[in-house]
Amino acid sequence: MKFVILTGIICLLVCGDALENGLARTPPMGWLAWERFRCNIDCKHDPENCISERLFMKMADIMVSEGYLSAGYNIISLDDCWLDHNRSESGQLQADASRFPNGIKALADYVHSKGLQFGMYEDYGTLTCGGYPGILNHLETDAKTFADWGVDYVKLDGCYADPSEMDKGYPEFGTLLNLTGRPMVYSCSWPDYQIDKGIKPNYTFIGTVCNLWRNFDDIDDSWVSVSSIIDYYGDNQDTLIPVAGPGHWNDPDMLIIGNFGLSYDQSRAQMAMWAILASPLFMSVDLRTIRPEMKAILLNKNVIAINQDPLGVQGRRIYKKSGVEIWIKSVEPSSAPDRSAAIVFLNRRTDGTPTRVSVILRDIGLTSLFGYKVEELFDGLNLGVYRPDDSLTVIVNPSGVVMVKCTVQTKDSIISEKNWNEDNALF
Ligand code: GLA
């Protein structure tokens, strides 16, 4: 009996498939401080924008009052630079007291009182990337502290750590989080640091430990950065697509929509691509000053629905030529053996005039006999019913997208569509 219990405990610590926590069945959504607010700790000169409880409380207020929470963005998360440089006398992590005078538990309570979840940032190594205390050698204490504080989401970075140790360290911390009994979504930077060091990540294993994981460079405020991420995901899709699904997602990093670097079309492009990639959607933007048209992109229900589709399929690049790309993702509803699909037409050209793109639905795998109802998603335009041999033509702005959903039709839906059209006929 003792042996069985012991084996169970050892298995919990090292057996990958014991770690599934049942969370993040669709890509997590929220707000993350890093890309927009970085490590600004100068509250004396910049009290509105420094990393402080005031900033997070304000963002939490706006997430609720301005409709972000009801659109699905339900996590608000710390990133680096929230910590004091020293642990407490009893060895616990503690926040910088001048910037978080009420401590992290009080901030988490405030966030919960708004109906949001609270996200934490830490690092597997000796220090965070910004030079604050990491969790190495304190794994058990810190997992317990996070649970006591009411943390719902943990981003665990990988600076100041040995990437070859991560196959052991990240699962160990994941197990300790689970053992607290508090459900916490686990966001890992594990593969990113391994790839940097020339180690091939074991994604099958990582997917049993982490709910999401980074694998490429940090995003910054430019179209060049967004484009490089899109290329990485297209070029590595045969590795990345199979390992994504409900509970475990590739993370191409934050949404930078509403900041300084992207045009309106490029912002739509980021939103469309992150949706079709089934990426976590973490906004990193000043919600106090975001322009209305950028806010509308972040809140677009049709596009979010593609990201949050319950099938949890990561989209695939199926065409790339002369600056034009076509990406496709299977979505609900299905009518066996056919599935509906979301399609992004992405124009990487910058030669000043929109590009016309035509596809025959059959050529991109849409072969249902009854055809597809095609809707443009950003503006919600009904483009009509297309059969497999029909040609769909879209006009795509430079560094922009057109995104459509092709909903598979059935015999019944064709009849009801016909009745609807006749009932509502104007002439
Ligand atoms: C790394 C991560 C970023 C951010 C910073 C903080 O670079 O990849 O997302 O968390 O650390 O220092």
UniProtKB/TrEMBL annotation:
Residues 312-400 form the Alpha galactosidase A C-terminal domain. Its main location: other. Keywords: Disulfide bond, Glycoprotein, Glycosidase, Hydrolase, Lipid metabolism, Lysosome, Signal. GO terms for molecular function: alpha-galactosidase activity. SUPFAM superfamilies: (Trans)glycosidases, Glycosyl hydrolase domain. Homodimer. This is Alpha-galactosidase. It comes from Daphnia galeata.
